[in-house]
Every structure is written in structure tokens, then in C-alpha cells.
């Protein structure tokens, strides 16, 4: 077969605030690949099916010399992130054409991995689509389930405040907390999202753009657990309305991703209220909980007992637009890009 | 016997920054008591022997309407704090004249407690003096030992940074950490204190007034554990030089007690580095650890295997001066006021 285009999304320029599609990232069609003839040298040829677009990716769109918890994307190179791929050819033991793998994949249509060490073989529940395996059944679902299990110390009738409650992580946290008998206060940035959070069982759901978080927490708190996806003023408000020995699960701080993090105004409340703050990266706690997740959560997702929404875009060239939507919160549900059908 | 003076230290005016002896607090001799004739109504008459003066007390010298983790002192009323007293008379079962008690005592020479619920009977190891029972063998010792046991998750060869390392809490933390095989970086505010910390075994001891904390941590870190008695810039520096999954034991933030707390500059490091922050009040963890403390630590203190220093003042009228010294860090060793001999 003749070589075909191997589309890629390249990191082109460091953004100053929000990423700009076509400038921060560009869709490039200059590379090509001969799927039949390309030598694998013992490796695996993958066809990328779906790619996840997540809030944390903004932090990687930076100058290389700036240190952070994840490496910077390389200018001129493809982005990368969580995804699912189909094995087209394999020279690796234990991996064969037709298998599916999850991994941290470059944002390009076809890719050769030198071995299987960075890939995980994965089977799909026939009731779920591959997009869900980078969403509720994948990293965001893992994040919600595993960090809640590890850090929440939740007890029935406690009060939890969940931010970005309509997102893939927050919406799972709401449902897990309700199933465990907690009172749930949840925030998001549109009336549509508020309705979705209510439909998931949130006892108090509000639009943070039109309702003052501090007032809501004063009225419906104080809180025992805070699930933080936001940081900034909202974190300050949560601390001021926390009970003694409240647990703060620090999942992310999207308020600071585009233009800088705000300082924490009242760090003295940490000792004054005996607060417990838990930063984490899901990769470190996954081994402890992955079997329980697969046994407990996947069947509930497949049976509709745990609900989720997805905002699916089609085509690798949409990555830039989707990244911007995720930073602005204009997506509705887990943002996924379908790169190719099988 | 005729009535005698019952000296008291009264909270007289809210300070704007450092407390001012004679203005913030006044020593008052207007009250009197007849020790033989005063009716107890089923209670206990105490003669106060020693009182502890601690950094946290600054936070209670405030307007009553301002909320905080401990109640404000009442204007016109005696201060109160940890202390040891001798029982002069008792109408309570299980408590008799000649017994000794520990409790949260008003700052006055003689006091009647209505019952024994707020007092703990205490026996002294003959090799230790009563002053030590509000220091290394009391609340500060409890704080160091118990919070370390509960939160440090210390492992041999890890690196801990201890602030106010010459104080009663920090000096105990240094010694416990060294006994457990950690590398200890410790800071304090004078050359004399630096020498003391070195004599306790600190691997790196420095004067934060003349040496840049950030540079020390860059050179001798990164750190696995931070024992925070300081807050402010030092907390920021510790966060920037922390390893992934470092534990922050938030014991206090004396940099903010006189004039206001600084914000935390980089709260994003909490999730970026998976930091774990543990606020606590020793009273909540004491029940879990008090037996172990009495079995393990008291004998080591008595035998000189754990060292401590005390800065003892004599006379209830010295309380105001000692409070100021503790806030300014000019005391050398645990600040204790001996109110009376037995």
C-alpha cells in the first residue's frame, strides 16, 4: 500500500493565557506513513481511535525550562495524552493485530511504540463505547473513585462540596457521595450543568457565575469534605466554611491554569481548623484501586447506574478547539476526540 | 487565717501587634481569698505552681467577636493556659489535699474548680521538676511526639525540615527524627539556638535571620517532611523544596501571630507535588498516644536521653514579659512561669 498521510497536532507556540487553536497548536499533515511496509523493529504499530482532552493539559503548554509536576510539551512535536488505540501490526509477544491498548499517546493518527511497556491491553464492555474508556471508565473515573476512596474518609450524613460538578470527575464524585449517604453541594458554570448535577442527586446545585459560593456554603455548610477542581477564591471560601478536621481533596485548580494561580488567603485555617489537604496524581494510587474500580464501577456504568455525559468531537484536527473549550468550560461532558473508527 | 492577696493577670486591652506588658495584660492584686474559710461547695481549691506560656496564646488576645480556633480571652478576666497546681483542699471524691493536677488554669494564684472534670491528676517523676510537666513532659512534648507519630510517616534516611528547632516542640522533633534515622535540617533565630540544635544532632542547623532559608533547602533538600511552626515565606520555601508526596505538619505559624498571616504563594504545589497537609490540635490526638508517651518519653527525659531547655521566670507578675519574649523569640528554651513553690 502506498504511504498515507499521518496527521499530527503539534505544539506550535506557548500561549499567554487561553490556548489559541491554530496558533498554540497546529494540525499538521506533512508526515506520511506506509502502514504495511514501515519497519517495526520489534515494536507495535497503532491506529489511534480516541484521545482524551483534559484540563491539566494546559499546564504542559509552557516553556520547557519552567519546572512543574508534568513535563512541558515540546515545541514542534505532537501533543500527547490519554487515549485508546487499535493494534494494526505487532512484533511484540503478547500483543497482536486487533488488540486494543490504552496509553499516553502522541496526538497523531498512527504511531509505532518500540515495545509494550507503556501500553495496557484493554477490553471493552460491549455496552460502553471506546470514548468512555478515556472518561468515566478511564482516567477521570479513576480519579474520582480512587481519590475519594483514599482520602475522603467519608461518613454518612457528612457534607461534601464538589466543584466542576458537571465535569467527568465531579459528576462521578457527586454520585459516589450520594450513594454513600452524604449531603452534596455542587457547583458548575451554567444552568444546564446545574440541572445535570441535580439530576445526579446533588442536594444543592448552583451556578457559580450567578450565585455567590460563600453565601451558598454559609447557608448549606459547613462542609466536611471539599473536592477541589478550581482553587482560588472558591478554595478560600471552602476553607472558611470547613468544619474542624475537614478533608480537602486537591484534584486541580483550573482557575489558575490560564494566567496564574491565586495565593491562598488564609493558610492559618489549616492548623486553626485542623484541615487535611491531600494532593495526588491518580497514577500513584491506581494500582491500589484498579481492580475494585473494574469490579464495581464498570458494571454500574454499563448498566446505567452511574451516569456520565460526553462531549465528543470527530477528527484529530479538532484538538485545538476542544482544548480551548475545556479551559473555558464551554464543553458539556467529558471532552473526547474520536480520531478514527476501527 | 485572714484573707490573703490572690494575684491575677488580667486581659486589659487588645494589642495591635506585639503584646505590651502592663497594657495588653496587667498584674492585679485587688482580689483576696481566705484559704481556710472559703466555701468549696463540693469543689477543689488549688494553689497554682507553674504556668506555661506558649506562642498560640497570642491568637486569643483578640476581640471576642472575631472567630478563631480557640476562644478569645475575655477583657477584664484572667488569662488562662496549661499549668500544674497543688490541691490545698478538696470536697471531691478521688482528689485530696496534697495531690497535684494538670489543667487549663486561670492565671491567678489560687482558684476553686467546681469539680474534677477539667483536671487530670498527675504524678511527678522525682528526677523531673514541675516546670517540665508543662514543657517537654507536657503539652509541647505531647505535640511533638504525637503529631510526629500520627502524620510524619517518617522513613529512615528521609529529610525533615524543622522550624523553631530550638523551641520546646522543635527540639523534641529534632531528637525524635534523629533517633529514627532521618536527616534533619533545622532553623532558629540566634547563633546560640543554632549551637543548641547542633548539639541535639541536627545535620544542618542555621540562623534564619542571617542565612537564606531557600538557599539552605536548595542545597540540603529536597525535603520529605516539613514541621511548620512558622508559616509565611518559610512555608513557601518549604513547598518549593518539597519532594512529591511530602508531608507538611502544620503545628503553627508564628510569623502571622503579630500583625497578620501572609497568604500561601503557591497553593498549586499541593496538587502538583501531591503534598499532604496536616493541621491538628494536640488535644484530639492525645488519647491515642498518651500511654505511649508516658511509657517511652518520660523515662528518656528523666534519664537525659532526650534533652530540653527551659527558660524559667518566677512570679505571676512576669507573665506579660514572658508572653512578649515568646512572640519575639528572645526566650531560650520552653517559657515557664513558676507562680509558687509547694
Automatic annotation (TrEMBL), chains A, B:
InterPro entries: ADH-like_C, ADH_N_2, ER, GroES-like_sf, MDR_fam, NAD(P)-bd_dom_sf. The keyword Oxidoreductase applies. The keyword Oxidoreductase applies. Keywords: Oxidoreductase. It comes from the Eukaryota. Residues 44-337 form the Enoyl reductase (ER) domain. One of its GO terms (molecular function) is oxidoreductase activity, acting on the CH-CH group of donors, NAD or NADP as acceptor. PANTHER family: PROSTAGLANDIN REDUCTASE, PROSTAGLANDIN REDUCTASE 1. This is Enoyl reductase (ER) domain-containing protein. The lineage of its organism: Eukaryota, Fungi, Dikarya, Basidiomycota, Agaricomycotina.
